[in-house]
Amino acid sequence: MSKIRFEALKETFNRKPVEIIPVKKRSEIFAENVFNLEKMHDFLDKNSYQSVLDAIKKGKKIERSVAETIAAGMKNWAISKGATHYTHWFQPLTGATAEKHDSFFELQPDGKVIEKFSGSQLVQQEPDASSFPNGGIRNTFEARGYTAWDPSSPAFIYGTTLCIPTVFISYTGEALDIKTPLLRSLNYLDEAATAVAKYFHRDVHKVIATLGWEQEYFLIDKALYQSRPDLIMTGRTLLGHPPARGQQLDDHYFGSIPERVMAFMRELEIESLKLGIPVKTRHNEVAPNQFELAPVFEEANLAVDHNSLLMDIMKKIARKHNFEVLLHEKPFEGVNGSGKHNNWSMMTDTGINLLSPGKTPMKNLEFLVYFINTIKAVNDNEELLRASIASAGNDHRLGANEAPPAIISIFIGEQLTRVLNELKNVSNGKLSPQEKTDLKLKVVGKIPEIMLDNTDRNRTSPFAFTGNRFEFRAVGSSANTGNPMTILNMIVGHQLKIFKTEVDELIEKGLKKDEAIFNVLREYIKQSAKVLFEGDGYSKEWEEEAKKRGLSNLKSTPEALKVYQKKEVKELFEKTGVLNSRELEAKYEVEMEQYVIKLTIEAGVLGDLTMNHIVPAAIKYQQELVNVIKGLKDIYDKDFKKYAEEPLYLLDKISAHISKVSELVRKLRKDINNLDNYDLDKKADLIVQKIKPQLLKIRKHTDALEMMIDDEIWPLTKYREMLFVR
Ligand code: ADP
Ligand code: MG
Question: Mean pLDDT over all residues of the chain?
Answer without folding.
Answer: 90
